[in-house]
Write a structure and sequence with these properties.
single chain; mainly beta; Adenine-n6-DNA-methyltransferase TaqI, Chain A, domain 2; 6-stranded mixed sheet; 2 helices; 14% helix; 36% strand; elongated
């Protein structure tokens, strides 16, 4: 972990102090939070193609199959919302799909998702935070 010369209170108890030069901003100002859609095994079989379908599984990088259309294009952070590995985060790029048991951060301003990846993964895995909804 990087060490900085000076720190300031974040104003958020569970975060603690942050480097003096950091600026806090609500994630919702920079990312739209959404979930994927129901994609059945039948849809995957009937519409085989090049675009991956990511599910809540974590084996094979979360790939359930591939279809001939895509719902997302660009750079995203996704995470599993269901199952034994709920809260596992992935950095995704390109054209792809996610099922309804995945959530996605869609950038609304220029904030590379890699910057939020670590914080999202850490936050989702905190036992004291509410993950419902």
């Amino acid at each position: 972990m990087n060490k900085y010369n000076s720190y300031k209170p974040s104003g958020i108890d569970w975060i603690g102090d942050i480097p003096e030069h950091w600026i806090l901003s609500r994630i919702g100002r920079h990312y739209f939070l959404e979930r994927g859609r129901v994609i059945s095994k039948e849809e995957i079989i009937d519409n085989q193609g090049e675009y991956p379908v990511y599910s809540s599984q974590t084996e094979n990088n979360g790939v359930l199959g591939s279809i001939n259309t895509f719902d997302f294009e660009g750079e995203y952070v996704t995470w599993t919302t269901d199952g034994a590995n709920a809260g596992t985060c992935f950095h995704r790029t390109g054209k792809f799909n996610t099922t309804n048991v995945c959530a996605d951060f869609e950038p609304t301003t220029f904030r590379p998702p890699k910057l939020i990846f670590g914080l999202a993964e850490w936050t989702i895995r905190q036992p004291h935070l509410n993950r419902s909804g």
